[in-house]
Amino acid sequence: MSRIEEVSIGDAASRSAAADETKPDRMALNVGPSHPTTHGVLRLIMELDGDVITKCDPVIGYLHRGDEKIAENMTYNQFVTFTDRLDYISPLANNVAYALAVESLADIEIPERCQAIRALVCELARLSSHMLGLGVYAMDAGAWTPFFYAFTEREKLYTLFEELTGARFTTSYTRIGGVVRDVPDGWLGRVSKFCDDLPNTLRDFDKLLTRNRIFLERTEGIGVISREDALAYGLTGPNLRASGVDFDLRKDRPYCGYEKYDFEVPIGTTGDCYDRYLVRMEEVRQSVHIVRQIVDSFPDGLWYSEEAKKIFPPPKDKILTSMEELIQNFMIVTEGPQMPEGEVYFEAENPKGALGFFLVSKGGGVPYRLKIRAPSFCNLSILEKMLPGHMLTDVTVILGSLDFVMGECDR
Amino acid sequence: MDEEWANLLEDRYDFLAPRNSRDCVAFDCPTDYLLELCKSLRDKEGCDLLMDVTAVDWGENATPRFSTLYHFFSLARKTYLRIACDCQDDLQPSMPSVSKLYPAADWHEREVFDMFGIHFIGHPNLKRILMWDDYPHFPLRKDFPLAGIETEFPAADVAEDTGVSVQAAPMMGGPFVAPAEGHVSKSEPRGKDQSWTEECDKPR
């Protein structure tokens, strides 16, 4: 067989193929960075032996915006908008995780109503993320219909988000010490209605996919991640749980009052693509269950912490009528919420996995260092080990089952 | 529970020094003992997950200038552990790589190398991960300007044909921060990076 130098575009691809000295009977194949199956700008440089992958080198960084550098140059509240753009499928959950991280630095007590709002939006974000994750996963496996069912539900969720936050996509809903505004009148009822409707879609999903012969053959036994590998590579979220590890921060280190709600953490057995599908499906059901409980027991009170005087801006009517509140508001806007010195690391159970923030503060309103531990970044690091040995056609299904977002991976 | 574990670790590993922390158990570890410690943490102390590896630049004039920080999670104890390690040399910072013990560290260490220029000795594939391979700077160091520095375009053939280069970003319009000290007339919120005002030239 004659040597095939490369099947690829661009100078960079040829350089990396040449550097690796592709063996004469192997073929170098470049997928991405712009490719429908890579869900964003992931690039895979693979070495193929026929249809079988022998080596895989993931290349990331095409969406790198330097969020961590930017964070060192702005106040804590200004950075909330940047968290929207991490995992942009579930911006609300990122907002909450970030706010909780900064609050753990300042030791702020959050009122019950605010906690309930935050837990509620986290679960709605999880529903939104999983509906997209499952929908495109099915589409990657060749089934188009579930995608439209899922997107119909996401549209309803986006309408709810818009009513709550004023934006469908980039919500920026939390502030350090609370949330921007209370839930609007009648909104909880509409959330409740959504929860009544969603199980119908899930039933359709079940009928279309769960026992679908084609889907089963594409996913069962494909992309198996053992329990040991999953832990060693630092996988989190549904990908880790599908490999049989019982790790869910909502249970293990409850925040936002998750300890009050009754729910189960689904665990997989084999860690293949099908298990990751099943775990996400069950998480959707559990999330609906949690949302119902939150709506039924929605506490009264304030949606921000009153004690956080130098951190959360006072209400608008007070700013316009009282001198002290006006000064307070001015200081918070110009110098940022005043934080004590110290280091904290906080992780929240986001739809994609554990989203962590490591904060180093030297006091004042601007972080000295902010590190974002992105679950998609860690979940993708296993590709190098996992893909070799699989067929090229399995790549789409495996990527779909990992459910990653490049905005978060590259930050 | 956390204190009990902290005492236990301190007894077992006498080289550890307690570190100020607002949340989890935290220790400073001398660089020479890092690999030994990580091996014991994985095999004996039940730290199953290496959650995060990161670094902090303490400022151009600080000594030690760089520290790397490791966050472990123990599934049995359901708690975090922070280990901090100072890099000995401020000009050529280096650290032993833990990626053989925890494969999760592979990408994290590449990112730290990419952003801070800390070399991880023993890393199997230490190359840039977020920036392109030939990028000459380390963006998260404190002496790197927020706007960026003009550098060569990554594709040499394109640069030759068109003469383009990677430009520093114009900073007009934000981000806005008011300095806490100084005269009040200077403390209005303004673009923190002054690289594009009439008083300062654009960074090289």
Radius of gyration of chain A: 23 Å
Percentage of β-strand residues of chain B: 15-25%
| SSE topology string of chain B | HEEHEEEEHEEHEEE
Distance between the termini of chain B: 52 Å
The residue fraction in helices of chain A comes out at 40-55%
Number of E-state strands of chain A? 8
Q: Which geometry of chain B do the CA atoms define?
A: elongated
Biggest β-sheet description of chain A: 3 strands, antiparallel
User: What is the overall silhouette of chain A?
Assistant: globular
Number of strands of chain B: 11
Main sheet strand line-up of chain A = 1-2-3
The secondary-structure class of chain B comes to alpha+beta
Ends apart, CA distance between termini of chain A:
43 Å
Mean pLDDT of chain B: 81
Order of helices and strands of chain A: HEEEHHHHHEEHHHHHHHHEEEHHHH
Oligomer status = heterodimer
- What is the CA-atom radius of gyration of chain B, in angstroms? 21 Å
Structural class estimated from helices and strands of chain A: alpha+beta
**Mean pLDDT across every amino acid position of chain A:** 87
What does this structure look like?
The complex is a heterodimer of chains A (411) and B (204). With 411 residues, chain A is of the alpha+beta class. Chain A has helices spanning 11-19, 67-71, 80-84, 91-106, 112-140, 145-165, 187-210, 213-219, 227-232, 238-242, 249-252, 273-296, 316-321, 323-335, 375-380, 383-386, 394-402, 406-410; strands at 27-31, 43-49, 52-59, 174-175, 178-179, 339-350, 353-364, 369-373. A three-stranded antiparallel beta sheet of chain A has the order 1-2-3. A three-stranded antiparallel beta sheet of chain A has the order 6-7-8. In chain A, strands 4-5 form a two-stranded antiparallel sheet. In chain A, helix 5 (112-140) packs antiparallel against helix 12, helix 7 (187-210) packs antiparallel against helix 12 and helix 12 (273-296) packs parallel to helix 17. The two termini of chain A are 43 Å apart. The model of chain A is unreliable at 1-15 (pLDDT under 50). In chain B, a hairpin with a 6-residue loop joins strand 1 (17-18) and strand 2. Chain B is an alpha+beta fold and 204 residues long. In chain B, the strands form four sheets. A five-stranded mixed beta sheet of chain B has the order 1-2-5-4-3. In chain B, strands 6-7 form a two-stranded parallel ribbon.
